[in-house]
Amino acid sequence: MRQHWTRGALIVSSLFVLQACTTLEPPKKAAAPAPAPQAAASAAPAGAPTAEIEKYRAMIADGNPSDLYEMAGEELWKKAMGPKNATLEKCDLGLGPGVVKGVYAVLPKYFKDTNKVQDLESRIVTCMERLQGFDGKEIIAGSFGKGKRKDVEAIVAYVVANSKGATINVSVKHPKEKEMYELGKKSFFYQAGPMDFSCASCHADPGKRIRLQDLPDLTQQKGAALGWGAWPAYRVSSGTFWTMQYRLNDCYRQQRFPEPIYISDDTIAVSMYMAVTANGGKMAAPGLKR
Amino acid sequence: MNNKYLITAATLLALPMGSALADAKFDKMMQDSFRSVGIASVDRLKQDAAQKYCSDPAVLAGKGNPKQAESIQKANMATIKQPADGKYIGDWKAGERVAQSGRGATWTDKADAANGGGCYNCHQINKAELSYGNIGPSLWNYGKLRGYSKEVVTYTWNRIYNSKAYNVCSNMPRFGHFNLLTEKQMQDVMALLLDPNSPVNQ
Prior knowledge:
Strand order of the largest sheet of chain A: 6-5-8
Order of helices and strands of chain A: HHHHEEHHHHHEEHEEHEHE
Structural class of chain B: mainly alpha
Largest interface: A-B, 61 and 56 residues
Oligomer: heterodimer
Shape of chain B: globular
Largest sheet of chain B: none
Radius of gyration of chain A: 20 Å
Radius of gyration of chain B: 21 Å
Distance between the termini of chain B: 74 Å
């Protein structure tokens, strides 16, 4: 994160303003509606505090720092690099070699050349390996925001921004796509670890929130379209652009699971489940998140 | 007639085999997709009976086997230990700190670091705290509404210790069962809910 802060003093100062707003403490006057004593045993209502968060989001929505990542990503896409000194311009992300526009709305999908269902990040890594000669294993063993993975993240921002407004349309026609969807669904509901959590613990009911953070119901089209459609996103609280793989990594951390391996089948399967459930929704990424 | 039996037998055989294959594929995917980091080792992917039972979306939708649910609840109830010093009610101020903290047990946490209860993540508790979640029921006026009888006290202790003893697919972590909170921390959270002087009961 820190590295990107050096990109411009203007950005740095504006980010400080954004960071200062991230405590999510609503003004005291916006007190929560007082529940009647007999209602105390039922679920607490979502009310004024979440409305304040909506205002906050609207306030910072103009000027998403993802722009910086998009620009860096476009440059990386077009720059000859790696042992083979090639660009990514012949990379087939799912709609044919070099097609970037609208492609994020059809991912993850089955790719014949790898005989695998791939999400955007695993596919970019494949292209870096095959076209440019980079070692994918190094990217998988690395960390978010560092080395070649940092490049993947910028390219993700560039590709995703080119699908803004596109209708999510992920296929389950190929048997491997169908299988990946089923595996992802199973994983979504898989409870484990010292807190007994699964994705479904937080994301399988409408109207729920942790603290003041709304939780989309990812098992329903409406919630999935909202959740899947807003990621990847710029994360104000960490001052970094988060890809879907990064988002999932942190979900699993908070679930108290072991760490998901970057672009592993489980992360792609869960993405497939969310994306297919979101079908028909609109891509709004890169989003802006607290 | 014979054909019919054959088909039935084949169907019966095919179904479990198909799902066993799917299970094997799923297990392999999980095994290959995670790695141990810090205290969060891959052993955590192993499920106990409750976790296994509650990983079925049909069960979560209320279509589980009540007998199986009951037997898992019973087994969980049997693991509950009452406080060693016989005290259930600690210090509500310390309990508020436990309720506020959502830290602990992730791969970035140290084994010897104190965990939080993360209670506010899911529950309304003290009304002064506006940032609370709604996955669990509101606990505002917990003692005031339920009274301070031995039954209420024991039930509350047991719920914090192992919520699955009462509701097999409760979303609440089993704080005592998995040593997420110490006995003292649980006593302090008990005080937050059940000390008549706690702001929760004003």
